[in-house]
Design brief:
Distance between the termini: 11 Å
Structural class: alpha/beta
Number of strands: 8
Oligomer: single chain
Shape: globular
Strand order of the largest sheet: 3-2-1-4-5-6-7-8
Strand content: 5-15%
Number of helices: 10
Radius of gyration: 19 Å
Amino acid sequence: MTFAFGIRLASRFFHNSKSTGLLHPLDFAGKCGGSNVRSKNCTTPSFNFHNYISTMANLKYLNQEEAVKIDQELFNEYRFSVDQLMELAGLSCSVAISKAYPLSDVAHPTILVVCGPGNNGGDGLVCARHLKLFGYQPTVFYPKRTKKELYENLVVQCQRMDIPFIDGLPDVTTINSTFGLCIDALFGFSFKPPIRPDFQEVVSKMQQMEVPLCSIDIPSGWDVEKGDTGIGLQPEMLVSLTAPKKCAMTFVGKHHYLGGRFVPPELEAKYSLNLPAYPGTEPCIKLPVLADQK
């Protein structure tokens, strides 16, 4: 991506930033008297517009092989545990969702969380638990549970927080009238089409529902690199984890966030990720929607 393209991305991003709950980046300059100034009266961090544009223009979008390698290095070289990364990822997803759909703005605080059998489903379970702590009312649909202690513990944690689990996914009309948001935590970056028969109905209902859909890392059914190859699932929100995947370049929804503030600098440099600087202590940051700029 070119610097000029980065300018177009930022212009669109800044135009839509008032609804995110984050301070408009140009407000940093306005409050501090310049584009990259900190005066004695300034109470906000200085903001370097040029650096921001450069970062967004050079942010790396991973192919499937790179995503797998980074994940394995986090486990093997940097000694992160699966549940540790899952907790950090799920927390960042819940925070991003609370910014895009604050309780004060949603018609129904009830959220349907659709979880798959792998790590993406585990992220969804963690996300549901944190959303409950934030005041939302999540309900979990977890049709194919993984018989491992880690996942069983995540289920118990949700249940002990009075998060209901449902055995069957309701019809689309019931979903539309009952829930204000659906979280797609079905498949992650290891997925390869086609969708297995036992999940086809689930994806079909997510495709048909009218409530906003938020996908964690990869919209279910998408090719990790090519994007939607015919399934028709078009989420309104996408939360990329660690670094965005190539399919995110075709995302056309309203909200694209990056979460998972845990990448060691050495690993970021090795893969030339060029990750943006997270604001303050935030575990997530909003990204421009690339497909809008093409």
